[in-house]
Each structure stands twice: as structure tokens, then as C-alpha cells.
Amino acid sequence: METTSRIDTDGVPGTATAEETPRGAAAARRDVDGYLKAAFPWYGLDEAFTGPRWLMQVGTAADGTVQHGATGHGDEPSVKTDGASADKERFAAVITVAASPVRRSGDGTGVLDATTVSSAAWLAGSGLLAYTWPAQMDHTLRDDWLDQQTETAFTLADDLGSAPWTTLSLPVDGVPVTFHYRESEFGWVLAGSAHEGVHIGAYGRGMSAYGLGFAAIKDIETYA
Asked: Per the record, where are the segments of Basic and acidic residues compositional bias (predicted)?
């Protein structure tokens, strides 16, 4: 696949549940340090959103270069273990992906795919899945289900021009931008290109995507 690289997913946003994520001042410092190493601006919801904001995770290349990361807004989500708890959650995660051309790997032994809007769509789709668990499913089957659904999200991200994707216009730094958008029974996913050489992906549940706006984060430490 040439347009959607399976970016190093050690830092895929949403791979740790709220219960698994270490808290406290030291953990928060480690979290924000990763964001501060990025050579690109981070994006989050704009000032119209007045709820809680928090850091999620960053993803890095083998040489330690920060490639992408996510910021959370609203309720910190937990894995969906039953329909009642999921219905009460209202959150949106915003993913920033550095736009990069096809390039040599850090060790010079290979070629890394370009990062595109499809990369942001893939990260958003897999991020939503990390917090999804059909209530009727046996725990022992979840890994197989997650593998299958993640592969589906990867395939969908490579064909943004076809169903189930539609488009909607949302403001980025006050300027209307066209995003690719799809819904599922577990939540919604969207992806588009921003300014400053980055792509934006987002996923959420309980918050309508149609009323969102995005803006460059002036001080990422306010999320810590």
C-alpha cells in the first residue's frame, strides 16, 4: 500500500485505557516531553470546546523522531464493555500526523512510505477500535475481532473516495477544510489536511463531529 503506511503503532493513540495509563506529575511530565520533541504543530479542538483536555500518546520512528500523536477532549474513554457505559461517554481525540514524502529510513536500509490523509484516517480508525468492545463478545475472541476490524480500518483508509466515506467541511484555524468522514456503530472517524505541513485525523463517540472545529495548540503543556 503506497498511500497508507502502517506507521509505527507503538504510539497509536488510544492503545492504553484510562485505567492503564499512569498518572501523576512524573507521568504527565514524561507525556508532555514527547509532544515537545515534535518538529510540527499539534492540533486540538478550538476554543469553542470548553471541556477537559488531556494528552494521549505520541508515535515515533525508529530513530526517535516524533511522527504523530493525539490529544483528548471530553471524557477519558474506557474500553466499551457494555452499551450503557459507552452511551455515557462523550469524547473526541484529535490526531496530528506530520506530512512527509517518501523518504529513506533513519538507518538508510529502506524506504518509508509517505504520510498522507490516509495515514491520519488509518490512525483515527484504529484509535477508535482500541476503545471498542461489543458487549456480547467473549473476552477470548476480542483479539481476533480486533485484528479483523483493524484490517478493515486499514483498507477503508486507503480508499477515501468511496463509501462509507462522505465529506464535510470543518474549520481549521478558522479556515474551512474538507474532511473525509465515516460513521460506525462504535463512533465516528474523520481525516483531512491542515496547514503547517500536517494532516489531522479524529475519532469520537457521544460528541457530534459536525459541530467541531480544530486549531493549532498554542501551549501543549495546558493539556498535561
From this structure: 73-85
Q: How far apart are CA 154 and CA 174, in angstroms?
A: 30
Answer whether the bond into residue 171 is a cis peptide, omega within 30°.
Answer: no
Cα(136)–Cα(216) distance, integer angstroms = 40
Residue 36 belongs to what H/E stretch? helix 25-36
DSSP string for 63-84: TS-EEEEEEEEESPP----SHH
User: Does the residue 14 lie in any domain?
Assistant: yes
Helix, strand or coil for residue 152?
A: helix
Look at the pTM and tell me if it is higher than 0.85: no
Is 28 within the bounds of a domain?
yes
Q: How many domains does the chain have?
A: 1
Domain carrying residue 41:
10-223
Residue 123 lies in a domain: yes
Instruction: Give the amino acid at 147.
Output: D
Question: Residue 44 falls within a domain, yes or no?
Answer: yes
